[in-house]
Each structure stands twice: as structure tokens, then as C-alpha cells.
Amino acid sequence: SLPATGSAPKGAQMQQISVPRVQQVPQQVQSVQHVYPAQVQYVEGGEAVYTNGTIRAAYSYSTEAQIYGGGGGGGAQVTTATSSPTAIPSHNMVGITMDIGGSQILSGSGAYLIHGGLENSRHSLSHTSRSSPATLEMAIENLQKNEGITSHKSSLLNSHLQWLLDNYETAEGVSLPRSSLYNHYLRHCQEHKLDPVNAASFGKLIRSVFMGLRTRRLGTRGNSKYHYYGIRLKPESPLNRLQEDTQYMAMRQQPIHQKQRYRAAQKMDGMAESASNSTPHTTPEQSVAAQCQHHQQFIDVTHVFPEFPAPDLGNVLLQEGFTLNDVKTLQVLYRRHCEATLDVVMHLQFHYIEKLWQSFWSPKAPPSDGPTALPSSEEEPEGTLPKDKLITLCKYEPILKWMRSCDHILYQALVEILIPDVLRPVPSTLTQAIRNFAKSLEGWLMNAMSEFPPQVVQTKVGVVSAFAQTLRRYTSLNHLAQAARAVLQNTSQINQMLSDLNRVDFANVQEQASWVCQCEEGMVQKLEQDFKLTLQQQSSLDQWASWLDNVVTQVLKNHEGSPSFPKAARQFLLKWSFYSSMVIRDLTLRSAASFGSFHLIRLLYDEYMFYLVEHRVAQATGETPIAVMGEVRALYSL
């Protein structure tokens, strides 16, 4: 058994590839308010229509793997609030508001104004103040003098002004849409049961607090919006946890003069080197670079890459011409290759993966007759491994098994980097990029390994297929979670769901399901009661996630530490799905008004249960979730 490889030396089995770093570019994107009609409908395949309580939302579900349409990063179209059905922009799978994620719903005049804040930008910005905030006394004094505000109204405005000082601060070179600030203010008034002032009066409040604040009209021609220039959200403000056009807000709060962190090395796949004398109009290449820079705040760039195990050769005899040094060289080179793959993905440079794989598995022949070598540092000798030796070594079962274990560790790390939290709101442009990346993986690897034996290719592709499937599942789960947030935050809709659920004949459901599932009746009744209670409490999505996690723990606790744990976990998934199908069936037959909402929630909870059970099985078996799913795919390929 060879020692485990730590951090690999700089020599590696691949050709030198220049991996560009993304160059941060300021981007202007307009802020959009989301206004939805007072009625929503459920649509499946364009046929059946089910009413859905006091509101109607369009839900459409596509069975195709590519569930995201061509819509940009979370942008939604404004629809007028009328009583007639209104078109809602489709992402092929749309909840009440697919684009707004965990937005807040404000009811008024039969319409729902859906808005939120922004995802935490997490930037420590150095800036100089253009305008200094006034004290409350100064602000009220100015309003009394200039606007004729009475003393009675002054006490009411005190809380509004304090809220502005608590959540906003001056900053050089940044701007915020006027509509975003006003939406934050409306939400604050709703939560504290305060009477809001109109937009014009709110503008006067802001200027009374932040002296010298300027207004600019920003955006593309025909779609420009007014912005306050020189103000931003405080990093510690709770408004940072809200989701409102996260791509726009995070980009706008970047100081215009902030030093650029990454520089592209060459133009490739739309990622162009940004010119130092860039024009005021952002080019497509700059937009892509800026988008990658922005998206890095949603991934885990601090992830530590675990060590690889050592190959266990056992009693295997290497054929003539091969030594243990060749195996050690392969260890070093493969670790180096995996580290390069991780680095590229961490910087969201997905298109370079294909070239990395080509350079390792099918390197171009060198000019001389010498072996294929990797460019290395001047301080260390070159790491070399001829291609014929690489192919031969991969044929050994212990080497192939070791390489598969390394792949499980690599791809699990990539999943945890790209999707550190499956429920956290992320821009749709990032999830779309991840799904496109997943779609290309198998083809890239098969092309790179076209000259390798079928058994080697099948083993490698099996693991990368599990990785791609995991990315597709997790992005779909994230997409469902953002759609469900709007439903779970709608009080009237929750009340309608609870009313419909209380009409379900659970005794009949249990009678039919018990023959198939053979579940303990007491356990089923407890889950029913807990579900209704959690729904009645109008729990948030995170609270529902905690409840589902507790259900898994409760059901599987008798199998912990037992070899039967994986089988029991899979059986639980089947039973959960069967019971939920029976409940949905009952709701359908009763023409439940909240059927559409239940259908969306059911899809989300089924997917999240799968996610929880997958991780529990991995933990129980000492494997990674990628390895667990890879074993299933390996069984199908036999």
C-alpha cells in the first residue's frame, strides 16, 4: 500500500493551460417590482385548470432535464393587477413567483406586490462619504421648517427616520434604485403596523437624513430607472437577507473605483479581457466577467479539498517495464489534475474543464520523441508519464478503483462548492450555468478518453454521470424552494391549504396505503398532526426543512448502526412518496382550491426528502453522497 498523496508537487500530467481570472466590471441592471394579479391558476400541459384559493398562479412543470428557460438573471416582467388572468413569464416550471424566491408579499387593493431586499453582498468596502447622515433632530427640524411638518407628525416620522439610519449609510461610487428603497420602507411599515408615506414624501425623508444625496437615471435606453447615488445598505442590515433582484443589487453596491480582482488571460467562450479604457456601455464580455465575479458570493470558495486515499495494490504484480515509481507519479499527477479542476470550477470557468481533461487524458504529442510531460516550475523536476503507461496503469483494477475513489472525493467537493445550501436563494443565471455545465460533462470526458479501454471509460463516466445528475437535482430543488417560499409566506393561501387539508379523509388514505406500505398507524397519525400544526403556524421554508429533517431522524432511528439502514432509508422514501400521492389524489378528487399550492409543496418536499435520505445513507456507510449515487448507476450499467 502506497502512502496517501497530500498536496501535489507542481509537475502534473497535463498541458499548461492559462486559466483566466474574471475581471470585475460594474454592471447596470434595472430593478423590477413584481406585481401579480389577485388570481392564480394551475396549468399542466395546457389542459386542466384548477382554482387555487384567493389567488391564482400559473404552475407548469416540464419533465425535460432543462427546466430553465432563456430568461435572464432573475428578471421578471411587470404585470398589471387586474381580475383577468395575466401572463406570467415562464421558466418551464413556475411557482407563484419563480424569479423572486423568498420575496415578501404585500397585499393591497386586490393585488400582491412582491419584493424583498438583496442577498448579502459580503463586501468590505473602503469608501469616503459624499454626504453625511443627519441626526434625527436635524432631520425633523429641516422637515418642520421646509415642509411644514407638525409636531404630531414629527413623532410618527421619528421611527421612519431611525429606520433609515439603522439600515443605510453613505458610500462613494455606489447607487441604489429609488423603488428598492421604497419597497424596503413599505415592508418595514407593514411589519411594524405603521402608516407609510407616499413615494414623493419618502424621497424627502431620505434627503433630510442623507444630506447632498444625488439622483441619477441609470439603465439601458427605454428601460432606465431613477437611482439614489452615494448610498448603500449597511453590511449588518437585516435587509441584506432578503431576496430582491440579487444579481442587480450586489453588482450595484460594488464601488466603481474598487480595484479589480481578477484579470482574464485570453478571450474564450465569451470571456474577454476587459480593456482598461472601457466605454461607459458594458460589453457582453464584460457582463459575463462581472457576472462570474458576482456569482462567487453564492458559492463556497473557502472549501478545503480533502486528501486522497492511497492505492492498495495488494498482490498485484506490475508487468515488465512498470515500477512503483510509476504508480507514485500517477498519484502526484492525478492529484495535481484534480486540484486544477477544482480551481477552475471554483472560479466558475466551466468551459476550461474540457481542455483540462483533454490535456491530461489525450495530451498533444510533443515536438520531440520524448515522453509527454507537464510544464513545471523551475525549482522542481518535470513530472512525466507517457500516455501508453497511463493507459496501461488504468487497466489495473486496484488503480481504477483508487481513481474512482478520488473522483468521488473531487466531485463531492465540487458539489459542496457550487451548491453549499440547496435552499438558499441564488440567481437563476448561476443555476442555469451549472445545469449547462452538467449537461456537457459526460461528452467532454468521453471525447478526452476516446483512446482508453471501454472498462476504464465506463468507470470514469459512471462517476461523472452521478456528479452531473446531482447538480441537476440540487439546482431543481433550489428552484422549487424559491417558488415555494412565496406560497409559504402567503397567509390567505396557507389558510386555504389548511382548510382543504382538513377535508381530506386520512382514515381512508391510511386504509388504502397500509396494505402497500405496512406502516405503523400511530406514526402516520403523528405525522399528519405535526404536518397540520406546522402548516397552521405558517412556518417558514427553513422551519419546514427542519421538520422534514426531524421526520427522517424519527423514522430511521431504529435502523441506525445497522446494515439494513440503506434499505430502510430507501423504503421510507417509497412510502413517503406513496402517502403523499394518496393525499394529492384526494385533494384532486375534491377539486381543492389550493391544489396547485399543494402540488408545488409536494414536489419540493419529495425532492428535499430524497436529499436528506441520500446524505443520511452516505453518513451511515462512510461514503460521499456522490459515491452512494454512483453505486446505483453502476448497478444499472451491469
Automatic annotation (TrEMBL):
Biased segments, Polar residues type: 274-288
Gene3D superfamilies, alphabetized: Winged helix-like DNA-binding domain superfamily/Winged helix DNA-binding domain
Identification of the protein by name: DNA-binding protein RFX2
Domain RFX-type winged-helix residue range list: 160-235
Biological processes, Gene Ontology terms: cell projection organization
Localization per record: Cytoplasm; Nucleus
Entry keyword annotation includes Transcription regulation: yes
Ranges where the record places region Disordered: 269-288
InterPro entries (UniProt xref): DNA-bd_RFX, RFX-like, RFX1-4/6/8-like_BCD, RFX1_trans_act, WH-like_DNA-bd_sf, WH_DNA-bd_sf
Listed PANTHER family: DNA-BINDING PROTEIN RFX2, RFX TRANSCRIPTION FACTOR FAMILY
GO molecular function, one term: DNA-binding transcription factor activity, RNA polymerase II-specific
Annotated Pfam families: BCD_RFX, RFX1_trans_act, RFX_DNA_binding
UniProt keyword list: Cilium biogenesis/degradation, Cytoplasm, DNA-binding, Nucleus, Transcription, Transcription regulation
Gene Ontology CC terms, in alphabetical order: cytoplasm; nucleus
Top-rank taxon: Eukaryota
Organism of this sequence: Geospiza parvula
